[in-house]
Specification:
The protein is mainly alpha-helical. It has 12 helices and no strands.
């Protein structure tokens, strides 16, 4: 049952990424690349600063081995394909779409490199080699984005209409699968204890702060980068977690999603009030 749920989670993520591709244009993709300072700042926040914060948490807090591995896997699994469509309306939509596509492409190189760093330092053992992770990311994330953009180019009106419905359906499916995974293995969460779960929530809070501070002068872009840093790339994390023996790492990745949602809700409410007051 667990293996089936993990497969459904991956399918849901692929559907979300395909839908984002349907929503994107070449101009959206190029938005960040025409703004190199913003590009470097955004990628540094997601791929360097947040992982370093997670490494610091692992040093400061005594965590069970499974929790430590899950936290580190999440930390290096940067990418922002799960940003909700409504979040894009808070900031500059082209920035959000460009960030989603760019971060997924960069993940092909960055995530395998981080995993190679983690292996000797933290004893991370998986059946996947760096090249396997790179190929999996390319097939599972970059491929659907490219396919979605191709469909959007060929059928612009139809593609946009499909994207809206597919985003909603895939998002609901993903949430359902994550909750089912937590129900199936709720005992594991009790075993790791509240300190470990609070550490996962603390990572979310720290990631929000990192993204907000490095998001630049635009209030909307700060909100978007903060959420991108906090949500991480669950699809990449699940690809890696599935190669770790036992369900614990995958369950803790799912628990992080829940913790991220709980911690992010007050932040998003605050940012919406700020956006509303500015209009």
């Amino acid at each position: 049952m667990t293996a089936t749920v993990l497969v459904l989670i991956k399918i849901s993520v692929v559907a979300l990424i395909f839908a984002i591709g349907l929503s994107s244009t070449p101009a959206d993709l190029a938005y960040l690349w025409r703004r190199p300072r913003q590009l470097i700042r955004s990628l540094a926040a997601m791929y360097i600063v947040v992982p370093l914060v997670a490494f610091l948490l692992v040093r400061l807090v005594v965590l069970p081995p499974g929790v430590e591995i899950a936290l580190l896997v999440l930390a290096v699994s940067a990418g922002a394909p799960l940003l909700p469509r409504k979040l894009m309306k808070i900031g500059h939509e082209s920035y959000m779409l460009s960030l989603v596509v760019t971060s997924s492409v960069i993940a092909i190189v960055a995530v395998p490199l981080w995993l190679e760093v983690l292996r000797p330092l933290y004893g991370l053992t998986t059946e996947l080699h760096a090249s396997d992770v790179a190929v999996a990311i390319a097939k599972t994330f970059v491929g659907p984005i490219a396919l979605g953009m191709a469909v959007r180019w060929k059928f612009p009106d139809t593609g946009q209409a499909i994207a809206e419905h597919l985003l909603a359906i895939a998002g609901i499916a993903l949430i359902g699968c994550v909750l089912l995974l937590l129900v199936l293995h709720g005992a594991l969460l009790l075993q790791v204890g509240w300190p470990s779960l609070l550490t996962l929530a603390g990572m979310t809070l720290a990631a929000l702060v990192v993204g907000h501070l490095l998001g630049g002068p635009s209030a909307g872009d700060r909100t978007g980068l903060a959420m991108a840093c906090a949500t991480r790339h669950v699809g990449i994390a699940m690809v890696v977690a599935a190669s770790v023996p036992g369900p614990r790492t995958a369950v803790l990745v799912a628990a992080y999603l829940l913790a991220a949602a709980v911690v992010s809700i007050p932040y998003l409410q605050w940012r919406r009030r700020v956006a509303g007051a500015a209009n």
